[in-house]
Fold this protein.
Amino acid sequence: MYEQRPPQPIIDYSCRCGLQFTLKIFETHLKGTMKQVMGIRVFSIIIVVFLAVILTTSLATTRGNLTLGKQHIIGLEIGAKFDQTEYALRYGEPVVIGNIGNRKKYTFIHSLGLVVSEIGTLSSISIQGEDSEFTTEKGIRPGDSVEKVIENYGAPRKQYSDQGAQVKVYRDRKNKLSLEFWTVENKVHTIRLKDTSE
């Protein structure tokens, strides 16, 4: 004869079923929540990486890389037609006329230097010396501090030493222009705007 077990209480069975059902719902909910949390984390990581790439690219391209556009020094623009008679009326007869390869260089009083391309357009404009009355479009003149240059133009794209001066270079790749500030002892000595397409 076998031993007869006492009947299981219905409440006990229903409790276990209810508990299992509740646990199953909780587990399903937890899995769903975990998927949402993981989804949010992955999405957040993607956003952070995307913003980091944009910021890095932006800093790399904007650091010293300006849109100079129609940048000028004393109203003279790169690419403008050079008429020696007209310029002599404005700035006096050139003190020095020389050649740089196939281009002509004219130096006027107040240390204004112009380089004229083969086709008769300005390819470089420079001013130098603290007695110069000429300025850039943003009002920088020889004798101003390096700090004033950086306040107006930001950090330079490139810096190098040449002939005892520290040269700070700003570029406009789109318009093929370069704006250089030659500095000695933290003061601007020479400013040069030039065409970089040649």
Summary: Strands lie at 72-73, 76-77, 96-100, 103-108, 112-116, 122-128, 158-162, 165-172, 177-184, 187-195. The first helix runs from residue 10 to 62. The helical segments are 10-62, 84-91, 146-153. The first strand starts at residue 72 and ends at 73.
